[in-house]
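Why does this matter for the project? Reviewers at the last site visit asked to see concrete outputs rather than summary tables. In response, this paragraph embeds two records directly. Each consists of the residue sequence and, immediately after it, the corresponding structure tokens. Nothing has been edited or filtered.
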Amino acid sequence: MARERGFYVDTVERTSTAGADALWVAVEGLGGERGWHGTDRLWFLRALPNRASLPPSRLRHRENPDRLAEGRRLDWWTVEALERGRHLRLRSLVRMPGEAWLDIALLPGPAGTVRYRQTTVFRPAGPAGHLYWYAMLVPHRAVLGRLADDVLRAAAG
């Protein structure tokens, strides 16, 4: 975990022998009716108290089950940036004392492997934001570590 220019940044990185295409299919398949693998219930519970602050519709929302698009909702996120096959940035719609992003990147690794990098970025709003970050750090690390493992497992088939 690092603090950079007023942001908290926490990164989970894994190396996979699954091809980049298979990894991207697993990344782009997150959410909606398919859920979030083994972390699905935890994400859902985290977003549930925020139902009133989320855009209209249900918590589960995905227009296309196979392809994401910039500016579209993905459950309790908005797709903020998308470079198909390489990069996905989601912005949280969940109410919290600050702003949060989940960034997923696929990078070339050694000997034909792929590095899966998943970064959480949080910009705290005032003292409550700083307290929130530290209070949620351990659960977020557990959930995001498991999500990374699940994405790699899904890509491996």
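We now turn to the second protein, recorded in exactly the same manner.
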Amino acid sequence: MVTAESYIGSNDFWNMAISVGFGVLIGVGGAWATLRSNNPKRRVVWNQSSNTTLLRSTSPSAPSAVSVSHAGTTLVEPRLVELEFSNSGRRDISPTDFASGDESLIFDFGANIVTVLDTEVDPPSAPKPQHVIDGPLLKVKKVLVARNQRVTFSVLVDGPKGNIKLAAAHLTNTPVKRGVAGATRFLGGLVLTMAVLVTLATFLVSRVMSAPGEAADLKMDKRLLESCRYWDQHDKEKADKMCPPIRKP
């Protein structure tokens, strides 16, 4: 008890405690900075969620018995493509953040857009963005895109299969990148958790590595304590010189 109490009150104990505290703070602070940099105030994440051919390909000598037409026009290579984008930042994107009006957010479908079949928003109470079709381009009109809001366009195109490309992204202080909604926030939380775990693991390893030395110190303290008891009874002068003063509760 005397040995443990003397260690807890020693400079070594407090130095170790302060070092561990600073280590945890640095680890958490670094992870938090990474999370903040990966999740800015406003951010648009978009993705091509599906690209489905509506007609099976057949040889010219065996034409398909099924056809797809729109407004009286038969489509040659009809496909249903879904475009999804969301605001994964920490603040809403307002209409004034669209720096170039209706030319701010443009997606290229790589084939002629026939029509937009449906526009879904999540949550359902959020405003639906309007759009303009210009050949293979889908231009999203400026609109309020709330934090965590998701928009999905179901688009009917006629042409060879290809991937959607981002043709223009002019939003004020708002990066626009391809990705999966929610992935950035998940990765940021994972980084924060890993930083804390690494900091704690480093502390535990350091404690294990220093355990033999501390055991030797405790053994030496025990011998000194036994010697001090003997000197206290038989050699007061030596006890006063060699032994630490006894602290009474």
